[in-house]
Protein: Formate--tetrahydrofolate ligase
Organism: Dehalogenimonas sp. 4OHTPN
Amino acid sequence: MLDPTKLADWRIAEEAERTMKSVSRLAADWGILDAELLPYGHHLGKVDYAAVLERLKDRPNGKYIDVTAITPTPLGEGKSTTTMGLVQGLAKRKGRVSGAIRQPSGGPTFNIKGSAAGGGLSQCIPLTPFSLGLTGDIDAVTNAHNLAMVAVTARLQHEAINTDEFLAKRGLHRLNIDPTNVTMRWVIDFCAQSLRDTIIGLGGKTDGFMMRSGFAISVSSEVMAILAVFTSLRDLRERIGRIVVAYDRQGKPVTTRDLEVDGAMTAWLVRASNPNLLQTMEGQPVMVHAGPFANIAVGQSSIVADQVALKLSDYHVTESGFGADIGFEKFWNIKCRVSGLKPNCAVIVATVRALKMHGGGPKVVPGKPLDAAYTEPNPALVEKGIVNLLAHIETVKKSGINPVVCVNHFHTDSPEEIAIVRRAAETAGARAAVSQHWLKGGEGSLELADAVIDACEELSDFKLLYEDSLPVRARIEKIAHEVYGADGVSYTPEAKARAEVIEADPSMQRFATCMVKTHLSLSHDPGLKGRPSGWILPIRDILVYNGAGFIVPVAGDIKLMPGTSSDPAFRRIDVDVETGKVKGLF
């Protein structure tokens, strides 16, 4: 057996890939017909989701499980690893089992966090294609988004330098776009802080319209959000046409439909709309589709990926980004609201390491060795940090879903520390299981698999946190109080004015609320650990994603374009020039 204590993740993946299933066999074993598989070489493929859903429309769904976590350290607590491990463990107990995760962004892959394929003996493979572009979905999102920016900036230029007669001859009418109110920005799939704010259009009149602009990361794009929540090609097309790019000089929205670019944007996305099919290291199917961050976007893999998997599997495990206050809250109140799907169980991944941090342990800094407090037994720190776990258990229970706490086992964890976590989880009304999937794969996650199976057999009473009729500020305050633990909410004058406009517009009443907030704290302040109390959530802006159908309140100082660190991962990624294989990914 491969030993993850001695081998880097990319070396383990490389070895496992020697014996992985071909994509045609993987699909056939899962019940996908030849005509429904769109191969991309020997080990990757896309699935024609519409064909599968039509063929299996009368088949009942399997059990639906979401994997979330406590508030993580900056290193992450192994949520993707747990998702892969749980799929592998369930497959040893039950029949057809599948997983769904997001496609990794190039930003984290080449920066600090890595590619999110899992780790140790619980990974999604093949690792290199997974990490480096896969089948081009993020490129398609980037191109579709930037095509809208090309359309609006070109229109600004042509309206500025041409007469109404000139425009009319080309079938155009003047949109009178306000160059100071172009709300969309360009996107790129890297962490490029120097592009956050830019000036474009420098030069002569044929070089564009000079204006302030900037970049966000591709996975924060509204186009990516739409890829996560669309339910049919017609739905995708309609949502793309509703995207607001800018406002005119009277304050009226200018959409992609107004710019006549919505059809071309959708054309970029047709191929990308089909989920990608990969596998665990033990040969179970994994759907990889969409890649929105959870702290600045919706944080879910696609609805269509889950819909397909639930028809083909007895148990399907999907993952939502970051902690239960971020990814799970959006899974609960956005993804399930749009899809109509009702989960049977939620797994909350916890580590002794993260609980020690929440108990007052030293700061955890990526790239620097962990303090001895994290590698030596310290039950007192764990006990103090349990409050963070309890907050996430309460959040899951408010949804009516049965929670299972997974203690993602590290070799430095002591029996006493693990016992504290188990006791606290069970006292709070959750099942608890210790899992060693990183070290042992599916065999190491059998206790977790059994706990999840038991939880899925119990009746759940799933319910949304808020109804469509609740005004946007009341929703924000409910999320802030019941999920984050805030005493209240404050608004900048700009955010308050936007909220008033939104609340007065009946067309936005059914929009879901997609919070933008740090993932490193239950609060808006990444420095506040544990379970902060006596604080107010500051909302500095409220965005509208008209196509996705989201109201997007922005809390604190979080940015839509992350920055690259001083010691990024790309320094250690290279290619073996003899074999062509990529090394150094994690």
In short: The first helix runs from residue 9 to 16. The radius of gyration is 24 Å. The mean pLDDT is 95. The chain has 21 helices and 25 strands.
